[in-house]
Amino acid sequence: MKNLKRTLAFATALLLIGSMSACGNNGSSDGDVTSETTETTPPKELDEEDKAAVAEVDIGDDEKLENGTIKWLATYDLNPEKGKPKLFALELFETKYGGNVEWIQTTWENRYNDLSTLVIGGTSPDLFPAQEFDTFPSKVVDGMFQPFDDYLDFDSDLWTEGTKKLAEAHVLGGKHYVAPVATDSKCLMIYNKRTIEENGLDDPAELLAEGNWTWDTFRQMCLDYCDREEDKFAYDSWYFETQFILTTGVAPISMENGLVKSNLTSTELERAENFMFNLKKDDLPLPKSEFDWTEQPQRISEGKTLFWPCATWCLWEADLSKFGEPGEIMFVPMPKDPEADKYYLPANMDAYALCKGAPNPEGAAAYIKCKLIAEKDESALAITEKQYREDYGWTDEMFEMWYKVREMTDANPVVSLHMGLSKDVSAVVDDGLKQASFNGTDWATTRESISGLTQITVDELNKQIEENY
User: Would you say 43 and 86 are in contact if contact means Cβ atoms under 8 Å apart?
Assistant: First the structure.
């Protein structure tokens, strides 16, 4: 039983890597705004053995859909790019349900404007991506999404422990407005093993195995490594600050008893922000202002930056040379808060929202069911592992660590819903959480500038929830 559970959890992690890769690569599209349907491109076909494995999957008593087409509004396509592997779940959807995905292309900046136009115009898409944690709660209250409960059984055994927890975090009035099909770590600490060895540092993976990968050992490692005169800094990227806060177990914005709650004045946030303020004071993070506020991932392979905190999509690219040569690249989860009662980790999810007025909610539910089935199908593990070894160069060591991180994240996931507030307030909160690390601004000053506006917004949103849900 232990091996079976390990295999299924391992499969879930691998499938999540595939299901979200397009988002990571295209989530900041700067192309022209369009909501026109685009033609799909030919995928890299599964071989006959893999297709046979798909054909043998049991989907229960379901029959092929009368309407197999589901409309997907996003910055990225669920169909693979030319020459890229087709996901097991998509092959299952096409084979078992006669389904297909019609992509309605949008841009990051205008995706909600396009969605609103389509919903109001009576030409709604079916599904919209929810992994950015910005569909809920304000966009639900604004009438852009409808609950899944008439089409999906959230008590079904198809859901894992982690996906059930995340589904329950997106409930209004007892209804589920987000369908998470897989869990992930929101942030990995990617590093180069050669850099660790050459600088005489303890390997973070070994510290994790010893139960000693904490804020304190992380900080000491950064102090031992960094040297401005030698152009050596501790970490870069845009993913560290908010995810570090979540290791306290308290999110900046959360749901409690069906209502939105601001935790900006909590002692946990203050402690995390003060820790990051001291990192900045000691000149440890890469000074982004001196690099034109542009990420410098190539410095990892150059041995000039110690950590690259990022979501898993950073490891989905064909060329990982910016992080190092094959066999040099490794990662661990965020370090543990030594004062927290558990090892809390920031959670990500492969998740979907059902658009208001969706023309084919049954088809949307069938696609989600295929995603859930694929996560628990052992043949999917072999197919996905083969694809990502060949396409992205993952090693046994990386797979083993990813299984461990996923298991830890499932146990104590923490998410913040601040990006689900109105756009102007979410931006203020998100920017404020980063000021200690980016600009060395003390948390008391930042908190004073953002907490009042945030609380007013939360109170107004809760009033709407109480009146309508």
Answer: yes
At 336, is the secondary structure helix, strand, or coil? strand
Residues 463 and 357 in one domain: no
Q: pTM value?
A: 0.84
How many separate helices (H) and strands (E) can be counted in the chain? 18, 15
Q: What single-letter amino acid sits at 69?
A: T
- Across 251-340, where does the E strand assignment appear? 253-256, 259-262, 305-310, 329-333
| pLDDT classification of 393: cutoffs 50, 70, 90 | confident
Find out whether 223 and 347 touch, Cβ atoms under 8 Å.
Answer: no
All residues at 6 or more sequence positions from 31 whose CB lies less than 8 Å from its CB, including other chains: 107
Q: For residue 40, name the pLDDT band (cuts at 50, 70, 90).
A: low
436/273 Cα distance (integer angstroms): 6
Q: Which of 213, 199, 219, 260 is nearest to 420 (CA)?
A: 260
Give me 366's structure tokens. Answer: 């069938």
* Number of domains into which the chain is organized: 2
Please compute, for residue 187, the number of CA atoms within 13 A of its CA located in the half-sphere on the CB side.
Answer: 25
pLDDT in the model for residue 42: 56
Q: Count of CB atoms within 10 A of residue 209's CB?
A: 13
Instruction: Note whether 38 and 160 are same-domain residues.
Output: yes
Domain containing 276 equals 188-345+417-468
Lowest pLDDT segment from 74-88, 111-125, 217-231, 315-329: 74-88
Residues 399, 456 within the same domain: no
